[in-house]
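Format notes (please read before filing issues)

Several people have asked whether sequences and C-alpha cells are stored in separate files. They are not. Every record keeps both together, in the order shown below: the sequence lines, then the C-alpha cell lines. Line labels are part of the format and must not be stripped during preprocessing.
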Amino acid sequence: MNPIFTVELFGLVFADTIFVSLGLTGLLALLFVVSARRLRTHDLSLWQAALETLSGWIEGTVGDLIDEDPTPYVPLIGTLIIFVAVSNLLSLIPVIRPPTADLSTTVALALVVFGAVPYFGIRRHGLVGYLKTYIRPHPLLLPFNLIGELTRTISLAIRLFGNIMSGQMVGAILLAIAGALVPVPIMLLGILTGLVQAYIFGVLAAVYIAAAVQVDTHRDGAAPSEKNPDRPPAPAQESLPA
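Then the structure lines:
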C-alpha cells in the first residue's frame, strides 16, 4: 500500500511508517519504564497483574521452545512479540498505516533475528565453535547452510509483511464498497491475525536461537540439562514401594 504521507529531509524521503515506528517504540518504552517503577509486591493493580501474566507467558513459551533457562532470551523475544503485536493492531486505526504493513519494517525486524542467532550461538560455543556448525554434518553442506540462513530471514520478513498488508487491503476494499458495518467481522479477524502473527514471529525467533545454542545437545543426543549448566537438573524420582 502507498504511504499515507512522506517527509523529505536532506534529500531523503521518509515514509510514514518510520515515524509511526519511532513513536510506537518511544511510547512502549515510556509505558514499561513507568510501569516498572510502580511495581508492588502486594495489592497488585490490574495493570501489574496483566503485565506479570504476559511476562510469565512469554517466559514459559520461550523456555518450552529453547528447553533451558529462558532468562537470556526473554527480553529480545518478548520485545519482538509485543512490538509486532501492537504494530499489527494499529491497522484498526484508519488514519495510521501499521509499520508491519511496510516491507522495510519487517525486513528490519527479521535482520534483528538474523543478528541475534549468531550472537547467542557465539556466546554459547565461541566463534570457532559456532562457525563449525555451518559444516555439520559434512563440509559439503556449507553453501546450503548459508543459503538456509538467508532464506529463513527473507521468509520471516515476507510472511509478516504479506499477512498484515493483505488484511489491511481487504478491509479497505470492503470499507469502500460496502460501507462501515460490513468490514467489522474482517476487523475482528484482523485482530486475531495480528496477534497470531506476532506469536509466530516470536516463536520462529526462539526456534532459530535454540538451533544455534543447542547444536551440540542435539548432535550428541544428550538432555539439555546435561549440556547446559544454567538449566537446573530434573528432580530425582522416588521409588515406589512394591
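For reference, the curators noted about this record: The first strand starts at residue 6 and ends at 9. The beta strands are 6-9, 12-15.
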